[in-house]
Amino acid sequence: MSLALPLARPLLRWWRSALSGSSTPARGMASSGSSAINQSSGPPAINELYHARRLRLVRLAVLMVDDLGTAEDIVQDVFAALYRRHGAHLHTVEDPDAYLTSGVMNAARSALRRRRTARAYVPPPAGTVPAAEDQMLLSEGDHEVLTALGRLTVRQRQVVVLRYWSELSEQEIADVLNVSRGTVKSTAHRALTLLRGLLGERR
């Protein structure tokens, strides 16, 4: 697992915010790690969107797949698909941020499913441990949070990351994942209950 990309804030602090309810979804799709885009002259060009949103999307993908290389590939593929479908100027894309976030979530889900299928047939070598340089990149508490996130179902992990890391509203998450708002709410509740059991209060 390689996580050389610095996260926007420590994961353990994020978990405390989620527990206390102080992480109030308010920033929406263009959240931490994003640069402002001037849309007064119309939709942004894809290269402008790439420079403004890439870092946020890679961080989001890292929290889903636990691996920087895979996360970067996911984001590159999503931007490439956006370009192939809509060209350099995104006049036909109603909400580019929602499009990109949805693309990253779908690609991350596929990557996790492929990984779990492969591991079902090829067990990891006995005694395998993370590389020392990877261990040094995150605190012990951050590693615990990532490990706990890995115990969730893919859908639970998507909802928790989008709700409490990207700080999207329940309706925004429902739109991104193409599910009902009620499904988002119940999934978040089950995921937080499980995470509390795995991590405790960790205050």
Please provide a written account of the structure.
This protein has 203 residues and is mostly helical. The protein folds into 2 domains: 41-124; 135-203, Orthogonal Bundle (Arc Repressor Mutant, subunit A). Helices cover 63% and strands 0% of the residues. The protein starts with 10 loop residues before the first helix and ends with a helix. 29% of the residues are buried. GO terms for molecular function: DNA binding; sigma factor activity. It comes from Couchioplanes caeruleus subsp. caeruleus. Keywords: DNA-binding, Sigma factor, Transcription, Transcription regulation.
What is the gist of this entry?
This protein is mainly α and 203 residues long. It has helices at 11-20, 46-65, 68-86, 96-121, 132-135, 140-149, 154-165, 170-177, 181-199.
Looking at this protein, list some descriptive labels.
mainly alpha; globular; 63% helix; 203 residues; disordered N terminus; 0% strand; Arc Repressor Mutant, subunit A; 9 helices
Major sheet description: none
Give unreliable regions as ranges. 1-5, 23-28, 127-137
Radius of gyration: 17 Å
Overall shape: it is globular
Number of self-contained structural domains: 2
What is the averaged pLDDT score? 77
**How much beta, percentage-wise?**
under 5%
**Could you tell me how far the N terminus lies from the C terminus, measured between alpha carbons in angstroms?**
26 Å
**Oligomeric state:** single chain
User: Helical content, roughly?
Assistant: 55-70%
Secondary-structure element pattern, one letter each: HHHHHHHHH
Tally of helical runs: 9
Number of strands: 0
Class from helix and strand fractions: mainly alpha
GO molecular function: DNA binding; sigma factor activity
Family: Belongs to the sigma-70 factor family. ECF subfamily.
Keywords: DNA-binding, Sigma factor, Transcription, Transcription regulation
Protein name: RNA polymerase subunit sigma-24
